[in-house]
Amino acid sequence: MKAIVHETDERRLIEAAQCDPDRFAEVYEANFARVYAYVARRVPVREEAEDVTAEVFQQALAGLGRFEWQGTPFIAWLLGIAAHLVARRWKRAAGKEEVPVDELELAVNQEHAERQTLFSQLIERLPEDQRRVIEARFFRHRSIREIAQEMGRSEGAIKQLQFRALGTLRDQVGNRHE
Amino acid sequence: MNDFNIEKLNEHVDALLDGLEPPLDADTLRLSELEDVAKELSLLPRPEFRASLWENLASSSEQRAFSNAGSARPSGASSGQHDVVIPPLFSSSSLTFPMRGSHLAVSFGLHVAALALITASGLWVVQNRAVVRSTVAQLIPVDHDYVMPIVPGKTGGGGGGGGDHDKMDASHGTAPRFAAEQLTPPLAVVRNEHPALPAEPTLVGPPDIVLPQSDRMGDPMANILNPPSNGTGSGGGIGSGEGGGIGSGRGPGIGEGYGGGIGGGVYRVGGGVSAPRPIYDPDPEYSEEARKAKFQGIVLLTAVIGPDGRPRDLRVARSLGMGLDQKAIDAVGKWRFKPGMRNEKPVSVLVSIEVSFRLY
Questions:
Q1: For residue range B115-144, what is the model confidence (pLDDT) as tens digits?
Q2: B53 φ, ψ to 5°?
Q3: Which residue of A18, A110, A133, B195 sits 20 to 30 Å from the alpha carbon of A100, by its own alpha carbon?
Q4: Residues in chain A within 8 Å Cβ distance of B14
C-alpha cells in the first residue's frame, strides 16, 4: 500500500514537473543522493562523479517532457541515463540512449545512497574541530600541514582529530546498522 | 589509539586522496574499518556541489522559457552564486548542453541565405521602382490611318458564313485563300474524305488579299481549339451563318454580313462605339540601353482591342528606338481591357496607345 502511494505521489510530481519546471526542484531533491551514489560507485573520482551527475540532471531536465510513465520508478530512468553516461565516459557506449537498470541494482543503489546521506548527516554532528578537519581533508583536499596552519594547531593534533573523527563516524554508522 | 596508528591511518588517507591503494602491512587489518569510512568520505559529494548544480539547472530551466525557475530552490541551494549561467557556444562542458556542429552550420547557412534574399529583393525593388516611375501610358484617339487587312470599302459589309448543323460551335483555324468563285466550301471536319471530284476549298473574295494559312482550317475568330467543328450554321462552310463561308454572315465570304468578301471588321471609337478601358495595365520596363543613355520619349502604338478584351495587331505607329518600342509592345501585349461596346455587344475597336518613357 505504501509503495502504491509512493508511486502515485512520484507520478504526480513528475507530471507536475513536466508542466511546470519549477517543480523540477523537488524531483532533483528526491533523486540527487541516489543518482550521485550510483555514479560514484562507478566513477570513483569525486570530480568526475560530480560531472556525470550534473550531466544526468541536465539531460533529465532537457528530456523530461519525453518521459512517459510506464510503471517503473522514475529513478530507474535517471539511473539509465547515468549508466549510459558512465559507459560513454569509459568508452564502452553500447549505442543506446538509456541502459536498463534492474530492481536488484535499484535496491543496492538505494542502500548506498542512504549510507552516503547518513555520512553527510553524521559529519554535520561531529564536534566542531573534528568536522573542520574532515571537511578540509576530504572535501577540499587540504594536507595535514595546511589544515594545521589554518586552525593554528600542530600537525600531530590534526592527525589525532582526523583519527578520532573517522572512529566516531565508524561507531555511529555501526550503531545505526545494528 | 596510539601514535603509530594515527600516523599509519594518515598515510593511508593521503594515499586514498591521491587515488592510490593504501600500502598493505600488518596494521592494515586493524585500520581497515577506519579506512572504509575514509574511502566513503572521499567519495561524498561536496556540500557546495549540490547547490551549484541546482543553480545550473535552474538557469537552464529559465533558458527553456520557463518562468520562476529560481523561486523554487531546493533546500541545499544557496542564492549567493551567479543566478544565470549562459552556456558558451562551443563549450564541451558537462554542465552545458552539447553544441552540434552540423546544426550550427545549417542554421548559419539558412540565415545567410535569408539575408541574401532580403538584400537582393531590396535591390530588385529599388531598380524597378525607377522604371515604374519612368513610364506613362495612355489611350488616345486615333488620328491617323491604320492599315488593316480589310478590303477598302468593305468594312462592316460583305462577309459570309456557314456550318453543317454541328452541335458544337465552329473551331478555331485559318480561312482558305480568296478566289473569284467557290468550288468547295472550307471545312474544319471533312465528311467525305474521298470525293468524286476533289477541289480546293476557297472563299469568294478579292484574290489579291492574302490571308494567313495553316494546316488547320477553321474560323479565325473562334475561341474553341478542339474538337474540330464546322459549327452550328448551315449550307456548308464553317460557323454559325449560312451559305458556305466562314463566320456568322451569309454567303461564301468571311465574317459578318453577306455576299462574300470580308465582313465585320474593326470599329473605331465614336458613333455608338465606346472606347475600350484598360483594367490591367502593368507598366513597361526601361531598356537597359535607353537607361544608360538616359533616353526619353514617347512610343505610339496602335492595337485592336478584341471583344475578349485582349489587344492584338499591336503595331508601332511612332517609333522611339533604343529598344523602347519592343518594351512598349511587350507591356501593352499583357494589358487587358474592358472591350469597346456597340449596341451593348463587345466589338473589336482600333485604338492608339501612347507610352511615355521618362527618367526622373
A1: 999 888 877 665 554 444 444 455 554 443
A2: -65, -40
A3: A18
A4: 143
**Three-class secondary structure of residue B279 per DSSP:** strand
CB-based contact A116 B43, cutoff 8 Å: yes
ipTM computed for the complex: 0.72
Q: What is the pLDDT of residues A25-44, one digit of tens each?
A: 888 888 888 888 888 888 77
Which three cell numbers mark B142?
486615333
SS3 label, residue B254: strand
Contacts of A57 in chain B (CB under 8 A): 53, 57
Question: Which residues share a beta bridge with B356?
Answer: B136, B298
- Per the CB < 8 A criterion, the answer to whether B207 and B199 are in contact is no
Chain B: closest CA distance from residue A108 (Å) = 16
A70 to chain B, closest Cα gap in Å: 25
- The secondary element (H helix, E strand) that includes residue B54 is helix B47-63
Q: Is the dihedral of CA B347, B348, B349, B355 positive or negative?
A: positive
CA B97 to chain centre: 43
CA B333 to chain centre: 18
Q: Chain A, 3-62: which have a CB under 8 Å from a chain B CB?
A: 20-26, 28-29, 32, 36, 40, 44-46, 49-55, 57-58, 61-62
Beta-strand relationship, B178-179 and B203-204: parallel
Residue B143: the pLDDT is 42
Count of Cβ atoms closer than 10 Å to residue A97 Cβ: 11
Amino acid type, B249: G
- As to burial, measured by CB atoms within 10 angstroms (0-12 exposed, 13-18 middle, 19+ buried), residue A57 is buried
Asked whether A170 and B37 are in contact (CB, 8 A), the reply is yes
Strands (E), B296-347: 297-305, 311-318, 336-338, 340-342, 345-347
β-pair type (B246-252, B336-338): unpaired
- On chain A, the residues whose CB falls within 8 A of the CB of B34 are 163, 166-167, 170
ω into B23 cis (within 30 of 0) = no
Question: C-alpha grid cell for residue B271?
Answer: 458613333
* 3-state SS, residue A15: helix
In chain A, residues with a C-beta closer than 8 Å to the C-beta of B74 are 25-26, 28-29
Say which range, A39-53, B37-51, B247-261, B280-294, has the weakest mean pLDDT.
B247-261
Q: How far is CA B226 from the centre of its chain?
A: 28
Cβ-contact B253, B204 below 8 angstroms: yes
